[in-house]
C-alpha cells in the first residue's frame, strides 16, 4: 500500500454498522456507552458534512437522506458476533454518500480516545477534521425526484439521528419515529396549543423521544434530534431552538465531539452529581482577537529591537488585566521575561514597589540562564554601571544572586553613596539594557496605573526613552472611569511620543455579542444557537463588559431566573422575565446589590478588610479571629 494514500478501509452499509454497534453494546461501567455515543456522533457529523456539501450543488430528494444512502468505512472486518470492549474511534476512517458518490475521510480521529480521559477542566479536545472528495460536485440540473428544502433536509436528518442513537433495530418501522411526530403531539396538546401549556408540552416531549431516554442518551443529543425533527413542523415544542440549517447541525455535532466532557453528560450522570453549577472556563479569553494581535505584534517588534509602550484603558471589569495576562503567558513561552506590578489604591509606595518588581526580574534571569551566561551578564553590568555596582546591589539586592561568591563579597563591601532619582533611573536603565536581549525581551506590565504616581511614570519614561539597544515592552493599564484628563498617565503618553517611543493606546470596550454568546453557552454547556436570545439580552444589559456578564449570570442563578433542570438535563430560563430585569448601570451596582444580601456582620468584616488594600496579610486574619467581635464571622 502506498503510505501517502489514506487507508480507505472496509465499506460497511451504515445500517449494518449500526446493527453491529447495537449488538456489541459494551457494559456501561467500561465507558462503553460513552464511547459508542462518540462513535455514533462521529458518523453523524460525517453524514451532516456530506449533506451540507451535497446541498450546495445537487437537488436532494427525501430518499437520499436515509441511512440506506450511507456507507461507513472502518479499519477492521466488522464482525457482529464479536464483542469488542476495546472498540475505539480510530477504526472509523470515513463515511460515503452513495447517491452523490461523495467520500468523506476523517483526519486524525485518534484524539477522541484521549478526550475521554480528560477531566472537566481538562481543556478542549481537538476538532475532528474531514476531507470530502471529489472537492467539486458537478451541478446536476435535473432530478427525477421532488426537490426538498433545507428545513425538510434537517427534519429527515433528525429522523436519521434518532435511528442512529435510539438503539432500535434500524430496519424496524419503529426506528423511523413516524413521518411527523409533532403532528401527534399537536393532537395530544389540543388545537389551541400556544406553547404555554407546560405540563402537556413536557409530556409530549418525553413520549416522543422515549427511545432515546430509554438508552440514557445525553440530553444534549436528545435536544439536537428534537430540534432537527421539529424543524419543519408548525408547532415545534421549543420554537426558539429549532434547527433549520445543516450548518447549525454540523456546528452542534462538531461541538459534541470537540468537548465531550462538557456536552456528553447523561441524565444519570447528572443525577449523581446532584446540583449543577455554571461551568465558567477559567482560562478562556473570549473575543479580543484584534487586541491580542496588536499586543503580540508590538511585542514581536520589541524583540527585533527597540522599546515600545502600550496603554490599555477601559471600564473596570472590561478585561484589561485578563487580556494582558494572556499575552504574558505567550511572552513567557517565547522566552521573554515578564514582570508585573499591580498598584493598590490603599498602599501608597509606588516607586518602592516598582523597584521591587525589577528586583524580582533578577530571580527570573537566574532561573533561565546558565552560569556562563550569568557571568556574561555580570561582566556587562559591571562595565556599564562601573563603580555603581554596589548601588545596583542596594537597589536590587537580588542582583547578588547573579554574582559569583568572590565578586559578591567585594561589591557588598564597597561604600554606599546616597541615591537620588537620577541615579535610580541610570541604574535601572543600564540594568534593562544589559538583561534584555533579542531572545529574552522584557515585558513590564504595570496594572492599575491610575493608582501609580508621577515619579513611577517618570522612571518609565526614562527607561523607555533612552536610545539604547534595550528591548523593553511596557504595558500599562488604567481604569478610564477613574482618571481625569489631567492624570499623569496622559502626560507620560505625550512625553513618550515626543521622545519618539512607539506608543499605542487602546480603550477596551465590551466584547461582541457573539463572544458573549460563546461565554454563556460555555457556562451553560449548551449549544450556542440555543443561548442566542439570552445572550442578546445580557449583552444589552452589560454592554458586553465580561465581568458584568459573569456577575449577571451568577445573579440570575441566585434569583432563580436561570436554573438547571435535572429532568431536562439542561439549563432553563425565561427570556421575557430576564429582559424585564432592571438594567444595571455598572458593575458596582451588581456588586453592591450582592453585598446587600450578605449579613450585617459579614459586611462589617468586608469593610474592615478593605482598609488593608487588595491583599490581606494572614496575621491580620489571625488577629481578627482572636477578637470576640469577629471570631464568629471569619
Ligand atoms: N475576554 C474575556 N474573556 C473571559 N473572561 C474575561 C474576559 N475579560 C475579562 N474576563 C473576566 O472578567 C473579570 C474581570 O476582568 P479583569 O480583572 O481583567 O478586568 P479589569 O478591566 O482588569 O478590571 P479592573 O479595572 O477592575 O482591574 C475576570 O474574572 C476575568 O477573568
Ligand atoms: Mg484589572
Automatic annotation (TrEMBL):
InterPro entries: AAA_16, Hybrid_Histidine_Kinase, P-loop_NTPase
Location of the Orc1-like AAA ATPase domain: 284-474
Pfam family, one: AAA_16
Region annotation Disordered: where it falls in the sequence: 176-201
Name of the protein in its database record: Orc1-like AAA ATPase domain-containing protein
Species: Skeletonema marinoi
